[in-house]
Write a structure and sequence with these properties.
This protein is an alpha/beta fold. It is 38% helix and 22% strand. The protein is built from 12 helices and 14 strands. The two termini are 25 Å apart.
Length: 333
């Protein structure tokens, strides 16, 4: 296919966030793709000012995304997503099928259902084979404000019912907790705590052991490669866990390699927000697969749902909107 026209506008997503929306056309098809951005107006101007250079761009395969020459970030992602959608529309096939004709439904999906003052995300592992819609809605509607970390996780654990397979996950985003070199918990188990790295590892281990937590993301600050490695070894005594780096990696392949060398984690979050490019996301995904690390694809929309499905992500983390898009994509399998 060849692009004949490209246009970008500043828009707003359904959740109120600013976004950059890109329209891409060929002689036969037209699609829109959007991606969140705090600077959507400036990025729309950037794309529109350079739109002529995309006219006539030939797109025949996934790797042709490299032909889209924009700075890494939301504008590039939106433009790449539009090209992929157009590619699928021109071929009259789902995007995941163009990436992998043998794709199967994803088995391990953790859904974000809430947060507390201390835990950025509490997740449940979804059992899609159950009649889960009402259960998921019930759990997602839980009010966790004002609860301690322990009470909130316990409330989710008791409420997920048939919607989940029995596994809990947490994302601490521990860099937010770090104040003057110490981790500040507003309410761990009824008390506020000011913890050093050793105490933080003990508290995380206590949560993991008490609730048999299977997925732990960013339990320590974003430059703690060695401390991550120590905590990972500590958690091994409780059996297999996904100990995942997000802010530790920051979408940077070189940091992923450092984490792998230190044995800091056994999983890495592949998040378009961090990597700034769909091609870059694939590079990190492939590095994980080649290095015995688990790539965890973050699903937030139809594009990331199709990428996760086409790449056959062993583990996915999803928003509610992302889960709905994944279920919709999987209906074609």
């Amino acid at each position: 296919m060849r692009l004949t026209d490209v246009k970008a506008i500043s828009t707003v997503l359904h959740d109120g966030r600013s976004a950059i929306a890109v329209r891409a056309k060929t002689a036969k098809s037209e699609v829109w793709a959007e991606f969140p951005s705090a600077r959507s107006s400036a990025l729309a101007e950037l794309i529109n000012s350079t739109a002529k250079k995309f006219s006539g761009l030939e797109f025949l395969r996934f790797d042709d995304l490299r032909k889209i020459n924009l700075p890494r970030g939301p504008a590039l992602i939106a433009m790449q997503a539009a090209a992929l959608k157009l590619w699928a529309a021109e071929r009259s096939r789902p995007l995941w099928k163009l990436l992998n004709t043998n794709s199967k439904q994803l088995n391990e999906i953790f859904l974000n259902v809430g947060k507390t003052n201390d835990i950025a995300e509490i997740l449940i592992q979804i059992n899609k084979n159950s009649n889960a819609t009402s259960e998921i809605s019930k759990v997602s509607a839980l009010n966790l404000s004002g609860l301690s970390a322990f009470d909130a996780v316990q409330k989710v654990e008791r409420s997920f019912g048939a919607a989940a397979s029995g596994s809990i996950g947490i994302n601490l985003e521990a860099h937010r907790m770090l104040k003057s070199g110490r981790y500040v918990w507003r309410d761990f188990d009824g008390t506020s705590i000011n913890a050093d790295a050793k105490k933080q590892a003990e508290m995380v281990s206590e949560l993991v052991h008490h609730f048999d937590i299977k997925y732990i993301e960013d339990p320590l600050h974003k430059d703690a490669f060695r401390e991550f490695a120590g905590l990972y070894k500590r958690l091994l005594r409780y059996g297999h866990r996904h100990v995942c780096g997000d802010h530790l990696i920051r979408g940077d392949l070189s940091r992923a390699k450092v984490a792998q060398q230190h044995g800091s984690v056994n999983a890495i979050l592949v998040d378009l927000d961090k990597v700034g490019s769909i091609l870059n996301a694939k590079r990190i995904f492939d590095f994980c697969k080649a290095s015995s690390l688990t790539p965890v694809v973050h699903i937030t929309n139809s594009t990331t749902a199709n990428l996760a499905l086409g790449w056959q992500a062993p583990v996915a983390k999803a928003s509610m909107a992302g889960l709905n898009e994944l279920i919709r994509a999987e209906q074609n399998i």
